[in-house]
Amino acid sequence: MDPEGSRIQDDPDVRVMMAGSTLRKVKSKSWKKPRHFRLLEDGLTFWYKSRWAGRSHSTFSVTEVEAVREGHQSEVLLSLAEEFPADVCFTLVFRGRQGNLDLVAESPEEAKAWIQGVRKVIHKAQTMDAKERLDQWVWDWFQKADKNKDGKMNFKEVRTLLKMMNVEMNEEHALRLFTMADKSESGSLEIEQFVHFYKILTQRDEVWKVFQDYSGDGEKLLLDELESFLSIEQQEGEQSSRRAQELIDRYEPSETAKKQSAMSLDGFQIYLCSREGSVFNPEHRELHQDMNQPLSHYFISSSHNTYLLEDQLRGQSSLEAYIQALKRGCRCVEVDCWDGSDGEPVVYHGHTLTSKILFRDVISTLKEYAFKASDFPVILSLENHCCLEQQTVMAQHLSQILGDVLLTSLLDGQVPQQLPSPQELRGKVLLKAKKINGPGDCVDETLMDEVSDEEETANDDAESLPTEDPSAECLKKSKCKLSRELSDLVVYCKSVHFQGFEHARSQAKCYEMSSFSESKAKKLAKDAGTDFVQYNTRQLTRIYPGGRRTDSSNYNPQEMWNVGCQIVALNFQTAGLEMDLNDGLFGQNGCCGYVLKPDFMRDANTQFGPEKPKELRGYKPLRLSIQVISGQQLPKVNQKEGSIVDPLVRVEIYGVPQDQAKEETSHINNNGFNPVWNETLNFVIHAPDLALVRFEVEDYDKASRNDFIGQFTLPFTCIQAGYRHIHLLSKDGTAIPPSSLFVNISISELE
Question: Entry's InterPro entries (predicted)?
């Protein structure tokens, strides 16, 4: 069996990687150490070790690598540009929040072979179809378990393999499967027989049962049988007949079945594991919403203190943090600016030990990465602590580096009654900052105490830490004035002090926006929910984490979305529930960072309030019923040889207060490979348009907290009913194939 199909191993660059090279791994100016790197025989796994590490080594899969950057394209390699020429340097960029790997080759030729070679294996891994992927997965297990590398696997090796695969199986049953696969009765399995063993092991009885319910002869689904399944179970309605033929053409591996317009059990299983069989409606994954409404009508993916990679007190400030946030579709980034020692403004978390980066480098990074993941506008939220001179330097950098990309004038020269749309602002960066009122004014009256937004609201926020401002002298000297040059760059996002909903209704302009700490926003949402929703139909609102979250933890963004707040800024560097919800909401609409708010949050006279969803016109609560059937190949939590997980599934609803709910299945002992629950969890959803559904799998532990295994979060409105697979994500939000849950979902009106 050849898991790679066309032999990528025959490519000259790939051969260089398989032979191995000594590359320098570089972490800083003082940490640069040689490591031996090579690509393993599977063509997918990179292996490396230091000369001194004895037997220990590290590996990573090409599927974890997102891209290769050539030359000095990382902060570390840039700082060493004089020591190492660009043509021997390259950077491997990983998915999720894993740090980059900066490498230096011994010659330009070697660097070129690795750069091109890694790109080729990334491409190969991305273009594998489902069957090749499964073959690869089986091949990987065979390689891992064949300890003595004789190309065969004896029963003892198979027992070890089952443990590695998260399966606890009694000796007898394992031996029975082994004997069934050992056709030649030699007492060991070669790769082809092992594939057969793997097939018996992964047979999905629960899929077979569904197949049997609709198959007349138990062997195949004829076109009309598949049509019935799609119409009755998958709720495909009118389009079932067209879909049935499409699915056979796309997923049926057997040519014989295809000719009969039929689907075999294999084809049926491949379809159920595909995009079409996923719980997330593929049509909602694409850009499908109206992008011509005012900016205030959208939720906007937003990051807080974007420059930080770690905590808020000692963490590293980095350009990579901006790149990572923008790659995730973030459309509002924050820059905290302070006076630099040589007249160049710097970015860091003031009054702390976080490291500093240059403002101009942040703007160059923004120019390069702003529109790679999405064309829609990026809002640059400026926290300005600089004196007049350095503010003017900032204005020059913004104008010179961003050029036409920076929006500096009204789109049609008219003072707007409503904000422009994401569509009209495609490819533009909008500056959010304070602005001098009119040509004759010295400064907006709210600027007299502080030029920065967050600190102004922090003064009356109990959650914030007191601050001592070392640049106070400079600010005093310039009488807290705002530089005219910087002020002129603010067009549609003018920061103002919030003076209450009443004032906003009568006086405020649509281009004025305020920032609130999470506690202030929570209080407003609780005391005046409907007012807040109405306010957010016309003006933008930015929410940021309370000052006590020095560990970069996050607040629950759902409470802010419930009142229509658009710019709910989270610490993107911190994985966990809150970022899962953010990724879940923004996983729709082409991951473009903008999601259209429900219609009742776009109507200026709306009476909607999160506390009273029943008063909504056209209120229709829905019943959500989820039968959790089984799990497939869940990852091990504990890498210790003998440990196997005891999984349970918890489903959580996030939405208006009345919809907040969680239910869980019982746990299954010692089976992470193919646990079967067959338990149904029921929910009632009162505001479906705002609800997110989160599936979490945990390893049950009666003595301590359960361990996280995987999760998947999506908007309720994006769920496909019927028999579906949920492809689980790691804590970091990256895919962990082939781990999944198999469920049957039904959604109906509440009688």
Answer: C2_dom, C2_domain_sf, EF-hand-dom_pair, EF_Hand_1_Ca_BS, EF_hand_dom, PH-like_dom_sf, PH_domain, PI-PLC_fam
Question: Order of strands, edge to edge, in the sheet holding 45-49?
Answer: 58-61, 45-49, 32-39, 21-26, 101-104, 89-94, 65-70
Cα-flanking dihedrals φ and ψ of residue 473, to 5°? -60, -50
- 72, 284, 297, 349: the active-site residue: 349
> Is 51 known to sit in a ligand binding site?
no
Is 515 annotated as contributing to ligand binding?
Answer: yes
Task: Tell me whether residue 72 is one of the annotated catalytic residues.
Answer: no
Token pair for 484: 């005219």
Whether the Cβ atoms of residue 248 and residue 261 lie closer than 8 Å to each other: yes
What is the b/e burial string over 206-227, where b = at least 16 CB atoms within 10 angstroms of the residue's CB? ebeebbeebbeeeebbbeebbb
Cβ atoms within 10 Å, residue 51: 10
What is d(CA 94, CA 316) in angstroms, rounded to the nearest whole number? 18
Chain-centroid distance of CA 571 in Å reads 13
Task: Name the DSSP class of 280.
Answer: B
Catalytic residue (choose from 72, 284, 297, 304):
304
670 annotated binding-site participant: yes
Mean pLDDT per block of 10 residues along the chain (751 residues) reads 58 95 94 94 86 72 93 94 97 92 97 97 85 74 77 85 76 85 87 82 90 94 97 92 94 92 93 95 97 98 94 89 95 97 94 92 97 97 96 98 97 90 98 77 42 53 43 46 94 96 95 97 96 98 95 96 98 96 98 97 95 90 98 83 86 98 96 94 98 97 92 98 97 91 96 73
349 is catalytic: yes
Check whether 307 is labelled as a binding-site residue. Answer: no
Cis (ω within 30 of 0) for the bond into 675?
no
